[in-house]
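User: I've been trying to design a sequence by hand for this structure and keep getting stuck. Would you show me what you'd pick, starting by listing the structure so we're on the same page?

Assistant: Good idea, let's start from the same input. This is the structure you sent:
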């Protein structure tokens, strides 16, 4: 097996580079060491020369697999001693890391890299080097390596090129060996990598015994390297795309890789035994979640980490490939899906799992149906490297922002966990809206509504009354604030009551209400929130299940809806045809639109403009899925089905009646409006029995029709009687807080985020306790408002809406091949790093003052008498402070430690506000003397409230303390209460299974049972003195047990990889 993660994202001769390392070497070439990738159009999977929209094909895979396999064949037959050069101090790299980049510099990543000069002529190059390498016991011998270097290296962009070395067969077996990549004197570099870890050395010694590399030499062309480079580049551009063969109907065994088990099971049923469909379970690797995984100084190289579980999934794919001729990558048709396919190829290449004759293809489909899957297999393509670059740019940006701002937050705002590019902009929207609400000043206004009747009060005929609203007074048209006081309203009421009214005008008009567009990700989340009360995360969870497929009543499995992460409104012609046919059959020809409706939206990223969300089979009615789907899934499917049908129907025709009623001189005019539906059009689908699950219970159609009929009978000049006058007082309302639906809509309008990020952004804000949901409305917590204020003050670009939207546009340009991804990163990092440097030098006292200035009004207004004078010492001033232990925030006296008064505590852990307690206690208060000793029992007040302490403070001694914050009336605490509290924790005994102690502890919210990492709360109706070991064991086995502390170490990645 090749060394773990020895393949780095890069290209050689327009291809994704196979690993050139031997079993006994960590020699690797990194993408950032290959200047050839400065031109993205000369890589495998990169689209053809700029502007032609074609692809170059996967032919380089086979070419480089042959060269790599030639090396692999010689490993098994011969052995050689390669010289290793390196320094004594080595930066170690774990086996679960990889690095990605494409600059022109040599990169040092977890290994020592040195460059050796190489002599070259037109035919052969001989390299000899003598270097020393130290181990724990002795120095290794110095070996000489003679290599014949070929000039036939394929050049991507730039003047650099790769060469292959021919190593003569050595007669002696070396104890250690490495690989060396060489660079000629005209621009080629020899890179040597050393990993001196003891475990790695042992592995190398075991694997490399009796092995060497032997490479055939090829005569170089008698041309200058520069001429050769330019000529080969010309040949590359003139090659044109290579047509990939269709993968269906099956003639040979193929391995299809998808993302989930459910999807794999459904697709396997469509394709049969000649295809083996395996899941990758999402990403097989990701950026290491620690500092330094993206390295701006190393041309933005990246360190990848492979989860332990991913090795198992990769092993399954590797085993399946042993007898297959096709590897088909069928991950989702978006940026993330493209990246997953690329990661899988990289990992399989480094594991030598791709034979030289295997065919690698990428297929995409937008719905999981048999016809869609087979059509995709008939049109394979290559990996779109532009999409991969956009993925890398996005991951690098998010990492650089998160891993540079988050540590600053931890130091400047303890308890605030993280910040992110999209997350921080969304948080700023919520906090800015809260600021608008705080600053809002209500304004009073009045409206006047009257009841009009066709017949007089004494008439025997029961006439129909209708409401009318005052729109004109004193021959002047009224606006919202024309009547601003009770006095004005009553004066107008008096004049209306004494006037006689008649119909002065009657107008009828018709409006066409067009059908809604089909769903995209954002509108589906909004409608599900408004109509079904689903959160965005829950909506996407249900939609994912509908997309991946379910087992139908006829024992067949099928995906029910198309791909759910989309911002495109268009639908396939075949789907539109089926929808229109269903409309005609179910509702009639008159309800079908005259022509097929086509919806278009200006999408910033054409690569991700998938179809709108629709049912895969419009004739699969919701009623057919009863018993197949659960209640919520049924509601969501019904929502999608009805919207899809409606989008191909005729507009609804609404008839509106406007009736103006005035006095004799028409100085006072009142208006009554009423409407009715003349033609249902698309609204017919929402009254269908199929959508009963989502129908509104309110039925007002009959009342509207009756009112419309009465108003339509009235003519100009008909007298009307006044039934009554109602004065209504109103106040302007502050802007409403965002719901999940309205926030998603706002993010979409501003261009912040993408369909795949809306739900996760909302979830992160809630998980970080920056935002809470109350009555389906998003409320920012004080912690979230502090984070937003800090970022706005020190990182204005991160929270600026236009900047975040522009960055999304730039990332879309990378996807389209219009922007170079590392140039984008370089430009942003130059500015962002300066913000980080300035923010890191800010003292925490400056942060406290900034936050006090920002939120002072809301913080201090809640204090008694709104006074900022310390009520304890009467000298100090109450200020906003961060606790010295970094666990919370409080309002206290600025004379600390002389005065320890705390007016309000804002806990950093849960943002719980504790109402200020009246501090009438002279503390420390002596409660009494401990009978068992001569120590005093004291009641004291600390940053987090009152506590009792056994003994006085003295140097070198830590007295026993326990909190009494759970006791409401602190003044009532007696010496007996204090001694009872101080006796905890109490060991009840040892657990019978492992002999570990079971302890009864006093926690913040009451008593708990602790056993190792398990915590079980004691019910409030149970007295702690009644807790025995048996009762504690019973509580520890209940469902309320929680785990705490650090979990056990996961199996090492090396062990999982060694199993392969």
């Amino acid at each position: 097996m090749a060394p773990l993660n020895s393949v780095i994202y890069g290209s050689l001769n327009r291809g994704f580079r196979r690993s050139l390392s031997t079993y006994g070497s960590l020699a690797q070439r990194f993408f950032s060491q290959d200047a050839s990738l400065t031109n993205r159009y000369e890589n495998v999977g990169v689209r053809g020369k700029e502007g032609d929209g074609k692809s170059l094909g996967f032919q380089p895979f086979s070419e480089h697999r042959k060269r790599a396999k030639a090396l692999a064949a010689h490993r098994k037959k011969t052995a050689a001693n390669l010289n290793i050069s390196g320094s004594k101090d080595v930066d170690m790299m774990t086996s679960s890391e990889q690095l990605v980049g494409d600059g022109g510099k040599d990169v040092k990543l977890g290994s020592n890299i040195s460059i050796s000069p190489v002599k070259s002529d037109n035919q052969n190059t001989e390299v000899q080097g003598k270097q020393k390498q130290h181990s724990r016991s002795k120095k290794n011998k110095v070996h000489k390596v003679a290599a014949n270097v070929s000039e036939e290296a394929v050049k991507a962009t730039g003047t650099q090129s790769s060469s292959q070395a021919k190593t003569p067969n050595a007669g002696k077996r070396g104890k250690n060996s490495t690989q060396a990549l060489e660079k000629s004197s005209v621009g080629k570099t020899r890179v040597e990598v050393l990993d001196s870890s003891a475990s790695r050395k042992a592995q190398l010694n075991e694997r490399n015994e009796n092995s060497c590399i032997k490479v055939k030499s090829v005569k170089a062309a008698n041309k200058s390297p520069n001429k050769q480079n330019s000529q080969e580049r010309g040949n590359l551009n003139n090659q044109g795309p290579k047509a990939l063969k269709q993968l269906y109907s099956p003639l040979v065994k193929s391995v299809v890789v998808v993302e989930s088990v459910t999807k794999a099971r459904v697709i396997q049923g469509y394709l049969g035994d000649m295809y083996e469909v395996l899941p990758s379970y999402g990403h097989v690797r990701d950026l290491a979640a620690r500092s330094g995984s993206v390295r701006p100084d190393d041309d933005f190289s990246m360190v990848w980490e492979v989860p332990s579980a991913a090795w198992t999934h990769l092993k399954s794919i590797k085993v399946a490939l042993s007898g297959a001729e096709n590897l088909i990558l069928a991950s989702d048709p978006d940026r993330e899906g493209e990246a997953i396919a690329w990661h899988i190829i990289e990992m399989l290449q480094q594991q030598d799992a791709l034979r030289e004759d295997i065919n690698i293809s990428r297929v995409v489909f937008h719905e999981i149906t048999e016809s869609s899957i087979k059509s995709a297999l008939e049109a394979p393509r290559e990996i779109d490297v532009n999409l991969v670059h956009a993925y890398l740019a996005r991951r690098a940006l998010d990492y650089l922002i998160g891993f540079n701002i988050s540590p600053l937050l931890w130091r400047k705002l303890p308890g605030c966990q993280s910040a992110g590019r999209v997350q921080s902009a969304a948080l700023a929207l919520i906090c800015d809206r809260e600021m608008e609400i705080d600053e809002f000043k209500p304004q009073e206004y009045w409206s006047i509504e009257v009841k009009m009747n066709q017949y007089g009060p004494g008439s025997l005929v029961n006439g129909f009354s209708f409401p009318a609203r005052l729109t004109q007074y004193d021959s002047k048209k009224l606006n919202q604030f024309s009547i601003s006081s009770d006095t004005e309203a009553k004066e107008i009421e008096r004049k209306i009551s004494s006037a006689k009214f008649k119909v002065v005008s009657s107008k009828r008009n018709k409006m066409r209400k067009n059908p809604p567009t089909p769903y995209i990700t954002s509108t589906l989340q909004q409608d599900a929130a408004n109509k079904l009360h689903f959160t965005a995360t829950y909506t996407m969870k249900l939609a994912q299940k509908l997309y991946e497929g379910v087992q139908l009543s006829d024992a067949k499995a099928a995906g029910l809806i198309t791909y759910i992460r989309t911002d495109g409104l268009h639908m396939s012609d075949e789907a539109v045809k089926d929808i229109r046919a269903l409309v005609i059959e179910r509702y009639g020809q008159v309800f079908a639109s005259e022509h097929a409706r086509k919806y278009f939206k200006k999408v910033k990223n054409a690569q991700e403009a998938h179809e709108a969300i629709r049912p895969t089979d419009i004739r699969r009615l919701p009623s057919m899925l009863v018993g197949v789907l659960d209640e919520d899934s049924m509601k969501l499917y019904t929502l999608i089905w009805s919207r899809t049908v409606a989008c191909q129907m005729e507009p609804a025709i609404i008839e509106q009646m406007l009736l103006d009623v005035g006095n004799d001189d028409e100085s006072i005019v009142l208006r009554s409006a009423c409407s009715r539906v003349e033609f249902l059009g698309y609204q017919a689908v929402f009254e269908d029995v199929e959508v009963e699950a989502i129908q509104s219970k309110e039925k007002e159609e009959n009342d509207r029709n009756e009112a419309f009929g009465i108003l339509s009978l009235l003519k100009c000049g008909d007298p009307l009687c006044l039934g009554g006058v109602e004065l209504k007082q109103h106040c302007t309302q502050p802007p409403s807080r965002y719901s999940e639906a309205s926030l998603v809509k706002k993010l979409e309008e501003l261009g912040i985020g993408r369909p795949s990020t809306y739900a996760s952004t909302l979830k992160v804000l809630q998980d970080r306790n920056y935002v809470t949901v109350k009555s389906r409305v998003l409320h920012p917590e004080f912690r979230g408002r502090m984070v937003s204020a800090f970022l706005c003050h020190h990182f204005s670009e991160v929270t600026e809406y236009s900047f975040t939207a522009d960055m999304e546009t730039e990332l879309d340009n990378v996807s389209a091949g219009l922007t170079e991804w590392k140039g984008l990163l370089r430009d942003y990092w130059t500015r962002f790093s300066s913000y980080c440097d300035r923010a890191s030098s800010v003292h925490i006292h400056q942060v406290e003052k900034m936050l006090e200035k920002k939120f002072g009004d809301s913080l201090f207004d809640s204090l008694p008498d709104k006074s900022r004078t310390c009520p304890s010492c009467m000298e100090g001033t109450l200020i906003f402070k961060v606790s010295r232990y970094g666990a919370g925030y409080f309002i206290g006296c600025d004379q600390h430690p002389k005065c320890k008064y705390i007016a309000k505590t804002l806990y950093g852990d849960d943002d719980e506000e504790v109402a200020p307690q009246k501090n009438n206690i002279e503390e420390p208060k002596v409660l009494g003397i401990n009978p068992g000793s001569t120590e005093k029992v004291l009641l004291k007040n600390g940053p987090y409230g009152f506590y009792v302490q056994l003994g006085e403070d003295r140097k070198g001694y830590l007295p026993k303390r326990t909190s009494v914050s759970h006791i409401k009336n602190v003044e009532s605490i007696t010496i007996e209460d204090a001694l009872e509290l101080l006796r905890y924790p109490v060991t009840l005994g040892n657990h019978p299974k492992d002999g570990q102690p079971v302890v009864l502890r006093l926690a913040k919210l009451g008593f708990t049972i602790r056993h190792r990492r398990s915590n079980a709360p004691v019910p409030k109706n149970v007295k702690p003195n009644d807790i025995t070991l048996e009762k504690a064991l019973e509580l520890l086995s209940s469902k309320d047990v929680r785990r705490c502390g650090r979990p056990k170490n996961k199996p090492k990645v090396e062990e999982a990889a060694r199993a392969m």
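That's my pick for every position. To get oriented when you compare it with your attempt: The longest strand covers residues 501-513. Residues 254-383 form a domain with the Rossmann fold fold (CATH 3.40.50.140).
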